[in-house]
Amino acid sequence: MTEILVVTVALLGVLAAAYLVLKQVHVWLPGSLSRPRARPSANEPVDIMFLSVDHFELAGKPERLDAWVNRYPELAKRHRDSDGRPPQHTWFYAIDLLHEHELEPIAELVRQGYGEVELHWHHSHDDRSQFISDLEDGLSVMQKHGFMLPYDSDYPACFAFIHGNWSLDNSRGLQFCGIDDEIDILKQHGCYADFTYPALFQAAQPSQANQFVYAADDGRPKSYERGKRAKVGRKPADDELMLFQGPLAINLRDWRFKWHPAIEDGDINISLSQHLLARIRCWVDQKIHLPGQPNWWFVKVFCHGAQDREVVLSRETDQMHHLLGEHYNDGKHFRLHYVTAREAFNIVKAAEDGHTGNAGHYRDYLIPHPLQRKSSTS
């Protein structure tokens, strides 16, 4: 009987290991477990920066646009963070699915204070010259509507980026990209940070999970795999691009899938589960922070909010915000800040420079709000 038990346990161990490899968990789990841990000061509250990034693919379908224009403000205005601001949504608009008539209604949501617009892009079998041409054409259209305008005269634009199909820097090959020096091209055109990751079950996922990484192109695919950790006091080189990652963890509180704990990646549109406290706690408990500033934690969730609008614009999302306010905004232990991608980046940069205190004061630390930038023709 003992021998049977030993064999059974060993077999289960082999099967579990094979499953983790099959699901690419071995890519990121060691790095996540070995990363620096936040030990916040007990004398001040922890600031929670909560940002929602949307792989936003309207694709010319009016029902998708109508849902966001008509329903999102009603959901957002029911909630406030410690600064009195409603939830902030960052629409990473897919320029490969661009329909210019969609941009003005989204611009109105920006003017109303509900979020900002950045860049999303699916492309494949690309070559360098065509990629640059398509990028510049897309940025030109977006800038006509007040999006992605430059703030620094050294760059023609200013934008954050999410790569379609997770394939930043040709990390999944020609079928989903084709550009080995994509990071360099994006940086030269004014990209300030990438918000693609995590990429659950994908080899494109960086091994350095749940942290901020600076990547420089080295002419090979997936250059960011050789990136450097960001930390307080470290100044990135001019050619380095920040990878701003969201939570990625095995959630031992969440057994929705019965035979194994859920692997959490901050995806709020796969099912109506974003309101589960077990998920919310897992997001926060990753304590994603800049080493050297342990009191500022970042939670990045993501969605495909156009296709999955019924999930994202749901009462479950309403309940998610209610629970965030209830558990992480008491003013004593936690301060909740709803931030856009740009604001989150600015707060990280403020941390790099050694700032402390209320993180909400640094939303516009480096890059101004898009409405505060001027086009080159104005």
Compute the CA-based radius of gyration: 21 Å
Strand content: 15-25%
Give the CA-CA distance, first to last residue. 82 Å
Q: Determine the CATH superfamily of the largest domain.
A: Glycoside hydrolase 38, N terminal domain
Largest sheet: 10 strands, mixed
Q: What is the CATH domain class of the largest domain?
A: Alpha Beta
| Regions with little confidence, pLDDT below 50 for 5+ residues | none
The average pLDDT score comes to 93
List keywords for this structure.
single chain, 378 residues, 7-stranded beta/alpha barrel, ten-stranded mixed sheet, two-stranded antiparallel sheet, globular
Report what the structure shows:
The chain has 2 domains: 30 residues; 328 residues, Glycoside hydrolase 38, N terminal domain (7-stranded beta/alpha barrel, Alpha-Beta Barrel). Helix content is 31%, strand content 16%. The protein has 378 residues and is α/β, with parallel strands linked by helices. The radius of gyration is 21 Å and the shape is globular.
